[in-house]
Amino acid sequence: MRKKGREHGMHTHHAKEILFKNFQQSIGISFADEKLLIQAFTHSSYVNEHRRKPYEDNERLEFLGDAVLELTVSQFLFKKYPMMSEGELTKLRAAVVCEPSLVSFAHELGFSQYILLGKGEELTGGRERPALLADVFEAFIGALYLDKGIEKVTEFLEKVVFPKINAGAFSHVMDFKSQLQELVQRDGMGSLEYRVLQEKGPAHNREFVSRVSLNGEELGVGTGKSKKEAEQHAAQKAMEKLKEKPGI
Question: Is residue 66 annotated as part of the catalytic site, yes or no?
């Protein structure tokens, strides 16, 4: 059991310092202004219970972090997908910065153990509440931006978020077929044709293999649980192949 009273206050202050020292080591970032970092993890319920101390909650940092995240993710997508329309970029960005995505990033980094919560919030499971975790992730990005600048935020996202985009974690919201169509039309390269090469597996677990050809030449082959999904994957492969060609 923790000691009560004044000693309890000292204990938690010391424990908090150690906690955030460990946190900075684990992410390999050392904050110049540690107060900013602690503020990013401070929930309003904690502030309400510690009125005598000048704690600030993370809501303003969250406001800033939200904008920084939108900007840095937008820049990454803008450079990575030169064929993508504004509408598609918007859809993809929304998937990357939506609450469930931010929660999964926060979980992966073990953020929940560092959140400073009020007792009531703690007892009702606030530490694992998705909205609260997503807010903390945004607030952390806001704090990192203020302390280290935009390049450091981008570096951090290059470790945590961008690899997932590269690995196709958000490809369910990407329309590769329309990107491929746009590319082929723009350069007057000819006509595309999709063909199902095979269907395999039982009815409840079908797998389709589709091929996309340009003027009769195979550009990409993809598999999926539906004809549409297989075609999307084939188009994705074709996009990768075409981008490797000089002058495209």
Answer: yes
Q: Is 33 a known active-site residue?
A: no
Q: How far, in Å, CA of 159 to CA of 144, rounded? A: 14
Q: In b/e form, how buried is each residue of 55-71, taking b as 16+ CB within 10 angstroms?
A: bebbeebbebbbebbee
User: Can you give the length of the chain in residues?
Assistant: 248
Q: Is the pTM of this model over 0.70?
A: yes
Characterise 232 by phi-psi region: left (phi > 0), alpha (psi -120 to 50), beta (else): alpha
Catalytic residue among 138, 147, 175, 231: 138
CA proximity to 170, closest of 107, 235, 92, 87: 92
Given a cut of 80, is residue 1 above it in pLDDT?
no
Q: What is the pLDDT of residue 9?
A: 43
CA pair distance 81, 40, nearest whole angstrom: 32
Q: Name which of 217, 225, 215, 210 is nearest 177 in CA terms.
A: 210
138 burial (CB, 10 Å; 0-12 / 13-18 / 19+) is buried
Has residue 213 got a pLDDT over 60? yes
Catalytic residue selected from 66, 88, 121, 175:
66
Q: Is the pLDDT of residue 110 over 60?
A: yes
pLDDT of residue 247: 57
Q: Are 118 and 41 in contact (CB under 8 A)?
A: no
3-state secondary structure of 220: strand
- Other C-beta atoms within 10 Å of 112: how many? 18
Cα→Cα distances 95→39, 87, 121, 130, 171, Å: 27, 13, 28, 16, 10
pLDDT of residue 2: 41
CA distance 152 to 145: 7
